[in-house]
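Example 3.2
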Amino acid sequence: MAENLAGQVALVTGANGGLGTFVSDGLLAAGATVVGIARSIAAGEAHDSHFYPVSADLTDPQETRSLIARLGAQFQKIDVLVHVMGGFAGGASVPQIDDATWRKMMDLNLNAAFYVLREIVPVMREAGHGRIIVIGSRQAVQPAAGVAAYSASKAALVSLVQTVAIENKDKNIRANVILPGTMDTPANRASMPKANFDNWVKPHHVAELVVLLAGDAGGDISGAAIPVYGPDL
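Structure, written as tokens:
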């Protein structure tokens, strides 16, 4: 049974990225109004009358605070948050990681999520309901050599989301994090052209899981770190 999100307002961060586009389209198909947030997103990317593109730098706490306040006033509610935004850096061992790379991974993968959650959770608590779905990474729980800054930021992200789930279960707010393996996106294909793409996770499968968690079927799921590794187990 398809999820019905008619009348709901969903915020999607990283909305025009390799996964964010699938997530946005999935939520729109389920009937939601989608506010698509990205650092750079043009008005022309509003390919649906229920899609509202918004440019914002979510690594800036003040800009994030102002944005969520404005969106809350504009739409009168925020039912669903799908935090897709993130970034990757690798190739260096722990002693080789420079300060800029460490800060960048924490800003993109952890701090931005914290700033958004800090503003959205009170909105959802006041409404008495909400669905929070965050995109993490397999490497949050299965770190590998050369990606310490990335995997550490994603591991902390899992802890943050699970804490939000515990703290807000009394208000019918469900918070979960999805842990995909390598996803079959144009950017990943370009960076790893010799890889076996058949073993990679398909973005539309992750998007379908997001829609499920956002709907009634997700009501009994909270605090979960859900592995989506594809065939490459």
